[in-house]
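User: Predict structure, ligand EPZ.
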Amino acid sequence: MDNFVINGGHELFGEVSISGAKNAAVAIIPAAILADDVVRIENIPQISDVQLIIEILDRMGADIKLVNKNTLDIDTSNINYQSVPYELTSHFRASYYLIGAMLGRFNQAEVAMPGGCNFGVRPIDQHIKGFEMLGADVDIVDGMVCAKADKLMGTSIYMDVVSVGATINIMLAAVKARGLTIIENAAKEPHIVDLANFLNSMGADVRGAGTDVIKIRGVEKMHGCTYSIIPDQIEAGTYMVATAACGGDVLIKNVIPKHLESISAKLEEAGAEVIEYDDAVRVTRFKALNKCNVKTMPHPGFPTDMQPQMAVLLSIANGTSILSESVWDNRFQYVGQLLRMGADIQVDGKVAVIVGVPKLAGVSVKATDLRAGAAMIIAGLVAEGTTTVEDIVYVDRGYEDIVEKLSALGADIKRVSVNDDNAVQTAG
Ligand code: EPZ
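Assistant: Predicted complex:
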């Protein structure tokens, strides 16, 4: 197991380049199942969730070639239909995209229920509703989602809840269904648009992605293509918040500024300055941080995946801030770790009241999930003294080269391996 050891108190200066978007990559890679030819996917982030989805396709018989560390050629023309067991799906949420992709390719799917960060109950009723409305019979048997259809027929589907995963899964199942599928009350995240663009590059007919009505006209065949994944909105936002929290001046490159507008606006409200360029944003902060209220919302609102990171910044801002989580039932588990560092936060249901304190103190903390892990790192960067972040396997799920990227900005952070006898070596 590895830990991060951080000596805090350093401002951040320099440049950081953002990797491909995790939540786009884990949808686009399984979507390759729908093509009957080689697809070349570029700007793939080297993170464990992506490695897991690639391993599943490999086990299904896909021919996967590494072109370079962030580019793959994937040929699924000879994959075999097979069920996907729990030991492969339980480590991450996006494994359930295999259901939509396999339904689209084989008219059937048998995939174990997914894992993923623990924010309370994470139902998949909207996914199942979509598959059934397209004509599939769906049952959950011994933890396996079993879906089967004679043929998938396009239809209109009104989502009861704005759901990124369900919107994506229905898109994957519908692109080769017969006729027109209309998804209403669809999610509008950047990775939904990225998937739609990828599907259309393979010959699909998807229109309206990024709005709340997506129209998909089924096609017979889908061919290979070359596609580059968009930059990661949440990775970029994490470095933006880290810079504002630590103070300093950082150019965050290889981003789409429009995807970051809600984060930029909140950071300026808190006292940072954000300058937008074509494919970069520059964050500077030298004056005191001010309180501000944050409410997480589906895109284009403030992203829920930036909520823990923002809580760290607000915990050292002047005044009292209100942080409301409107997407997940229980996404404040990390607060207990911040309280151990001296933060003053009270959580009541889906609202956290954050009273700013002059400083945080470095201690040993745990990463309770992926974005909470990123938040613990930011807390260590701003804290006085040394912070050890444990359970960083979560962080490796979504942040490529985070130690190298932060060190290049002047942070004092090291990855250390803790082996069985607790002897500590510094990892390479
Ligand atoms: C995706 O999760 C992301 N994961 C999450 O990011 C992100 O927090 C979330 O979207 C919201 O943006 C991936 O893309 C792999 P949802 P997903 O379906 O698809 C309810 C990260 O840090 N709901 O949009 O699982 C659900 O309970 C991760 O990268 C139903 O009720 O989220 C929640 O309250 C963490 N029924 C709300 O909808 C369903 O069938 C939004 O969930 C599906 C969802």
